[in-house]
Amino acid sequence: MAMRQTPLTCSGHTRPVVDLAFSGITPYGYFLISACKDGKPMLRQGDTGDWIGTFLGHKGAVWGATLNKDATKAATAAADFTAKVWDAVSGDELMTLAHKHIVKTVDFTQDSNYLLTGGQDKLLRIYDLNKPEAEPKEISGHTSGIKKALWCSEDKQILSADDKTVRLWDHATMTEVKSLNFNMSVSSMEYIPEGEILVITYGRSIAFHSAVSLDPIKSFEAPATINSASLHPEKEFLVAGGEDFKLYKYDYNSGEELESYKGHFGPIHCVRFSPDGELYASGSEDGTLRLWQTVVGKTYGLWKCVLPEEDSGELAKPKISFPETPEEELEEIASENSDSIYSSTPEVKA
Amino acid sequence: MQTPLTIPVPVLRLPRGPDGLSRGFAPDGRRAPRMPEGPETPESAGVQESRESQEQQARAALRERYLRSLLAMVGHQVSFTLHEGVHVTAHFGATDLDVANFYVSQLQTPIGVQAEALLRCSDIIAYTFKP
């Protein structure tokens, strides 16, 4: 019996989710942070999507969010012209870093000692987190607002994307090493340290470049405008999502489209694989995050593979569904003996 | 259904959402070790499991009853008791997934009638209706 993907919906945000990031794998599992236009970024357990806490303090839409490798710190970039650094265990605000315009992107170095920020003021800033009072180092050169900035090559270099260019900078000399120009707006960028691969999306294209030389490796075209893409840690698959509300899964080696999933009620703004590659998360204009299995039907996190001979009594089997859900068949509510709503739609409501 | 031969992957439960009351970061919740711990008493794992499954069944039954109560409320006039002795009535529409907000219409407040409104669950002390 073939299994169908059951996405797990993480609710709680009240406005579009515009960015998300996973931490590394820690002794306590891995974690997920989401940036939202409601100004309240949230921390979740990475493998279940369970809400852990909300970082309260920003006074405007949060455009970027990230966690450090061991998930002890979080950083956020917001429309209130600040970036903030948080204690990700207690939820307390540790630092507020004032900028001159909307901040869009934040990234920690591997050792969590430095924070890179970028935004509408077209400057890259490097903050020494051990000296919060000191002025940041600034790198200028972008001619339009910076959308994404990332450390790469073991924090020796910086990658930054604005509307039409992607630039590579040397950290020590703070000078530009190379740049790429695009005809269309760059929508997202992801850096894969193992293999030094850069994933860039623009228009309907998902492009892979060397993070060291910026030379192109390969690119794929999707059926619709893509806002974000992510490469699986083992580089077998990539997932992408965009304006048609669907998530696409491709074989990285052949470029073959393997699957497409409907589920979100709005454009997808961000998509990322978990650090163990077992699931990927998508954030959408509809205000939700969804978790998707890489291998559909595998027992992992909240997904439970049920073999035909197993008694599935231990599973919570809700017999009713919310009337507000448009997809639910009315027969399910009327029929007392209806065993499960799993047979009707992929949307599971408790 | 377009693909009648596939069944959706079953899930244990949905991801937990915000509690609507605090900002979270509960000290006991997050930094629990990921390794499962053995039963504390020499009592067999089977006895513990059946007690747990009984509890889970009870929880599921109570949850189902609550959800059915929400279903029965749709379209009815509901009286809400809010903080500071405020009472309002409205027609119940729906709640959101985490039951953090109540969507109501024709909300009669001390300062007039709101055609449509959201009541925060954390503001509601009690509510009552006649089916």
UniProtKB/TrEMBL annotation, chain A:
InterPro entries to which the protein is assigned, alphabetical: WD40/YVTN_repeat-like_dom_sf (IPR015943), WD40_PAC1 (IPR020472), WD40_repeat_dom_sf (IPR036322), WD40_rpt (IPR001680)
Residues in WD repeats: 55-96, 96-137, 139-179, 261-293
Record GO biological process: negative regulation of transforming growth factor beta receptor signaling pathway; spliceosomal snRNP assembly
UniProt cross-references to Gene3D superfamilies, sorted A to Z: YVTN repeat-like/Quinoprotein amine dehydrogenase (2.130.10.10)
Pfam family, one: WD40
Biased segments, Acidic residues type: 325-334
Record-level GO cellular component terms: SMN complex
Compositional bias annotation for Polar residues: 337-350
Family per record: Belongs to the WD repeat STRAP family.
Record's protein name: Serine-threonine kinase receptor-associated protein
Gene symbol of the encoding locus: LOC111142090
From TrEMBL, chain B:
InterPro entries referenced in this protein's UniProt entry, alphabetically: Sm, SMN_gemin7, SUZ-C
Cellular compartment(s): Cytoplasm; Nucleus, Gem; Nucleus, Nucleoplasm
A GO term, aspect molecular function: RNA binding
SUZ-C domain sequence ranges: 1-29
Region Disordered: start-end pairs: 1-59
An annotated GO BP: spliceosomal snRNP assembly
Top-level lineage group: Eukaryota
Pfam families to which the protein is assigned, alphabetical: Gemin7
Keyword Transmembrane: no
Keyword annotations of the record: Acetylation, Cytoplasm, mRNA processing, mRNA splicing, Nucleus
Domain spans labelled Sm: 65-131
Listed Gene3D superfamilies: 2.30.30.100
Cellular component per GO, a single term: Gemini of Cajal bodies
Family the entry assigns: Belongs to the gemin-7 family.
Summary of the function given for this chain in its UniProt record: The SMN complex catalyzes the assembly of small nuclear ribonucleoproteins (snRNPs), the building blocks of the spliceosome, and thereby plays an important role in the splicing of cellular pre-mRNAs. Most spliceosomal snRNPs contain a common set of Sm proteins SNRPB, SNRPD1, SNRPD2, SNRPD3, SNRPE, SNRPF and SNRPG that assemble in a heptameric protein ring on the Sm site of the small nuclear RNA to form the core snRNP (Sm core).
PANTHER family the UniProt entry points to: GEM-ASSOCIATED PROTEIN 7
Subunit structure: Part of the core SMN complex that contains SMN1, GEMIN2/SIP1, DDX20/GEMIN3, GEMIN4, GEMIN5, GEMIN6, GEMIN7, GEMIN8 and STRAP/UNRIP. Part of the SMN-Sm complex that contains SMN1, GEMIN2/SIP1, DDX20/GEMIN3, GEMIN4, GEMIN5, GEMIN6, GEMIN7, GEMIN8, STRAP/UNRIP and the Sm proteins SNRPB, SNRPD1, SNRPD2, SNRPD3, SNRPE, SNRPF and SNRPG. Interacts with GEMIN6; the interaction is direct. Interacts with STRAP/UNRIP; the interaction is direct. Interacts with GEMIN8; the interaction is direct. Interacts with SNRPB, SNRPD2, SNRPD3 and SNRPE; the interaction is direct.
Name of the protein this chain belongs to: Gem-associated protein 7
Species annotation: Enhydra lutris kenyoni
